Amino acid sequence: MTDKLHAKHGPSSLKNKEVCPHWQNRPGSSAAADEGTKMHEAAETGHLDGLNPEQIAQVRECMIAVDQLQEEIPGCIRYTELQVDVCGLTFGTADVVLIGAYTATVIDYKMGRVPVDDAEVNLQGWAYALGAFDLFGVDEVTVVFLQPRCDLRTEHTFTRAADYDRMRDRVAAVIEKAEDPKSPYCPHPENCQYCGAKACCPALASKALAIVEKLPDALELPAVFNPQEITQPAQMALALKLAPVLIDWAEAVKAHALEMVRGGEEIPGYELKHRSGRRVIKELSSVWEIVHAEFAVPLEEFLPACSISVSALEKAVKDNQPRGKGAAAIRSLNQQLTAEGLCITDPDITYLAKERN
Ligand code: SF4
């Protein structure tokens, strides 16, 4: 899982840093990360409250698999959420570690939808395995990744005699390069996509420059491309003019690529996927009649499923006032809703807009 105490070079980031030593985690959280954390906690504690049926099914599958692995190990001792030191190089938290007489089994839950690397080569698994070798003095460590959403279980057994040194050397090499500011930047589409250093990455900036130079309308370019190194307001203005051009270019690439694939061309590494369109409820009153009459949903459980558009509500209020009284009614409505705490306003958003000449 993600490494709880956040080592600088946590096991989950080693794969990315092996591709590019300057790769960084993205700051903050995301819906997918929050979901993963919730499901991990459920798998650890067995408390499934707050999960939807699909999430419960995935978590149950993990729990059953761990119980089966435990049953196969005589006299097994089970640790959950175990922090392991990785040869003094870094540290991480293994989801489950099962200890037998001479063996350890390290289990990592993966709740995502992108299949992880095989356990035999998975650098995150290698880091946990090294930690288990050191912490428990065992001769063999089996690494198991459980990824129920991909119907995937990958495992591999490493031995101290044959594997420990090469595993430690690979992890050490990745961290050494990541610590060296002179290491090369190595752009790779999939790796850069999840990198938190994109905005100030000189390699990406020079790729952007190469694109811009090929655009038909020559733009005046800023002297430097790393946003954090642009200190002159005039230079920042040039960068701001360039930004939408690059966005337009990216959108044009995506649109044209879609046309190519629809036209029968194959683009290596990409495939057409379909997503269901957004479902929209119309006629709330008719929906209420159905869910109440046929499915016994009470009003207090129906209402939280409904949302109200503030502007539509204001229009309804205005349309029902005598001529000339609409604006005052809307003001009064907003005062009352705000005073009662029934309508809250998100924080203001500050953004830069181009001045009109
Ligand atoms: S964005 Fe830059 S630093 Fe990040 S992975 Fe790509 S090349 Fe490396």
Describe the structure.
- The chain is an alpha+beta fold and 357 residues long.
- The protein has three domains: 169 residues, Lambda Exonuclease, Chain A; 66 residues, no CATH class; 47 residues, no CATH class.
- It is built from twelve helices and five strands.
- It has a five-stranded mixed β-sheet, sandwiched between helices.
- Helix 1 packs across helix 4, helix 2 packs across helix 3 and helix 11 crosses helix 12.
- The longest helix has 30 residues.
- The radius of gyration is 27 Å and the shape is extended.
- The two termini are 53 Å apart.
- The structure holds iron/sulfur cluster.
- The site of iron/sulfur cluster (SF4) has 14 residues, from helix 6 and helix 7.
Tally the structural domains: 3
**CATH architectural type of the largest domain:** Alpha-Beta Complex
Strand residues, percent: 5-15%
Low-confidence stretches: none
Helices and strands, in N-to-C order?
HHHEEEHEEHHHHHHHH
**Straight-line N-to-C gap:** 53 Å
CATH topology of the largest domain: Lambda Exonuclease, Chain A
Give the oligomeric state: single chain
Radius of gyration: 27 Å
Let me know the number of strands. Answer: 5
Task: Output the CATH class name of the largest domain.
Answer: Alpha Beta
